[in-house]
Every structure is written in C-alpha cells, then in structure tokens.
MFS transporter
Amino acid sequence: MSVQTAVPVGERVREGRTLAVVSAATMLALMNYNATFSTLAAMARDLNAGTAGQTWILGSIALGTAVLLLAVGGLADDRGRKRVFVAGALTLAISSVLCALAPTTSAFVAGRLLQGGATAALLAAGLGLIGHAFPAGPERARATGVWGAMLGLGIALGPEASAGLAELAGWRAWYVAAAVASAVLAGAAVTGLRESRAEHRRSGDLPGVLTLGTGVAALLGAITLGRGGWARAEVLVLFAAAAALLAAFVAVESRTREPLLDLRLFRRADFVVATGGAFVTGVAVIGVMSYLPTVVGRVLGEPPLLAGAVLSLWAGVSFAVSLQVRRVAVQGRHLIAAGLVLCALGDVALMGLSAGWGWWRLAPGLVVSGAGSGLLNAALARLAVESVPASRTAMGSGANNTARYIGASVGVAIVVAIATSAPSLTRGADIALAASAAIALAGAVVAVAVRGRRSE
C-alpha cells in the first residue's frame, strides 16, 4: 500500500509547486503591469515626458504583451512550457533593470515593451503549465480559480506597492524590486517545475506570427496615439495597416497546415465564448476600472495611495471570489454571463460620483463589480484551457489573454475619450460607466446565446 500511495503524493507535491510558482509569477506580472498608474506624475517629471510620452509610458507594456501572447503560447506548447516560462521570468528581470536605470522616456518605454513580452510568456506558458498539470475536473477548477485570483490580487497590489516604494525611495524602486523578484521566480521555476510540451511539435508558422504581431502592434499603436486625436493621419494609417495585416493573418492561417491559431476552433462554442468573453472583459471591465482611480483622485482630491485603494477594494473582492468559484454549480458560459451582469450592475452603482462623496460611497459598486470580475477571471481561465485540444493549453491561454489585453487597450481608449470630452469629468465618468455597463450586458447575452460545436 505504501508503494501505491507514494506516486499520488509525489504528483500532488509537483502540482502544488506548479501552482505556487505560476501563481506567484502571475501576481508579479499583474503588479508590474499596473505599477505606472500611481506614479505617472513623478515619472513624467523625472523623465521630462509630455502628453505623448505619458501615453506611451502607460500603454507600452500592453502593446508588448498583446503582440506576443499568442506567439509565445504556441512556442511554449511546441518547445516546452517550462522553458518559455523561465525565459519570461529572466526577461522580466532584465527589462526591469532597464526600466530602473532608464534616463529618458524612450528608454523607459523600450524597457516596458520588453516587460510586455516577458509578461506574455509568463501568462501564456504559466496557464498552459497549470492546464497540463491538473486534469479536467475539480482540481483544475481549483487551480484555475487560484490563477484567476492572482490576476485580481496583482491588480490590487501593483499600484499600492509602486506608490509605497516611491514614497520611500522614488518611483525607480519598484523596478529594482521587480527585477529581484523575477530572478527569484526564475530560480524557483528551474528547480520546481516539470517540463511539458505537445507530443507533436509543429514546424512553426512564421507568416502567422509576423502578420498577427505587426497587425496587433499597428492596432494598439493606433489606439494609443488616438487618445491625442482620432482623425490624425498617422492614426488612420495605423488603423488601415492593422485591418490589412489582420486580414492577411486570417488568410494565412486558413491555408497553413500547422497554423499559429487553428481557425476551426471558432466553430467551438466554448472557444468563442472564452475568447469573446475575454475581449469584452477587457473593454467593459478593465478599461473603466483602470481609469477610475484617476477620476476619484481628481474629483475627490484624494492622494495617489488612497485613490489606488479604490481599485484595491475592487480587485480584493475579485481575488476572494475567484478562489470560491470552484464551489459554484454553474460553469462555463453561464458563469461568464453572470460575471458580466454583475460588472454591469456594479458600474451602474458607481454612477453619480461628485465632489461631496466620501470614498465609502463607492464601496457597494466596487464590491458588486469585483465579484463579477472574480467570476470572470476564474471562469475564463478554465474555459481557455478546456476549449482547446489538451496539447495546446498554452495556445489557448495565449489566445484568451490576447483578446483580454487588446480589449483592455480599446476599453481604456474609449473611457478616456468619453470622460475627457464631456462638459465635466463627473459627467464623462457617468457616460463611460453607462457605456461599459451596456457593453458588458451585451456580452452576457451573446455568451448565453452563441451556438456551435462543444469542446472535445
């Protein structure tokens, strides 16, 4: 009997190590992703960044992440998920050093672009490792719930940690800390993770990588520059280039024997819901919540730490709910729809912000929206790996997170455009919240209504 029980215990230890290392990396990646939100003013002064420079300081990591997510997901499945994960952790360490030492805005943006690529590797390969380590069923539901919870926890802690370190030693201190933490994670991954890859190694899809990568880069570049004026020639040229390149990507993938993204997956209802749900989450949830601390700071006159705490309350509830999603009987598309509905209700509850409010009046809306976000993070993570073949879990994660971060960039652009074009910031915030709620509700309806072949 002792011999028979030794293997399951060993497997459980390895599963625990995988979940611990991947979860810690996910939390760090999201903390770093949001670190600039609370220190932008100090960074702009130190780096002499104008309006355009500040836009790129905020948006560059999203560009680097979204461009590479699907490509590194496919690479992880074919060449080794652990290998790509370790490379991502080491790259995050190096790029964090570059950001800490950056003398100019351009140098800092270059470092953040590299951090985006590292983030893509950690997210895609990390969730792929979890999908391989935990078989479908209750254990995978628990593991993906923990992974989803780390998204919320990272969002909650990032701005606060960055602001706190800035108070002690300047805004560069965060990037020093991130470099050290990333190096430690790389070591833990080398010793604690077991390699996994698809049985069939594909030859690679360079045309797909190039057309998708440049297409997404052009799209996010247009969105980033568009905040300074949507009718400018360079913005229109980038949008046109993005449309042409993404159309070329679809054409290439439909003719390639071993595509980066198998377009036949879009015949699967679960894949459509997972990918579409991630995009809507980015547009309608992440977009408005990313800008909310700025609104709170300007309208209520709160300092960065307290304004960031508003986001922490939302993300903290998201973290707690994600950990409990495995106990919910409803799963799949219905859970995603429920999460989007809760986010919409939370947005409605946040409307009406004015200078006379205390921060506590935001709490009900933040709690409801945070609960919805928690449902979404856990449900989307699970569906991302279960809606694709078992050998392509990292690709499924890459596709899902690509949709999420493209959606987030679109959402932030929409919210900022609406909020800053209204007669007052409070009026603009209300319109932006209403628009986000409408998009979330539409996404919930589509999630329930979409039809197609179920995942195999």
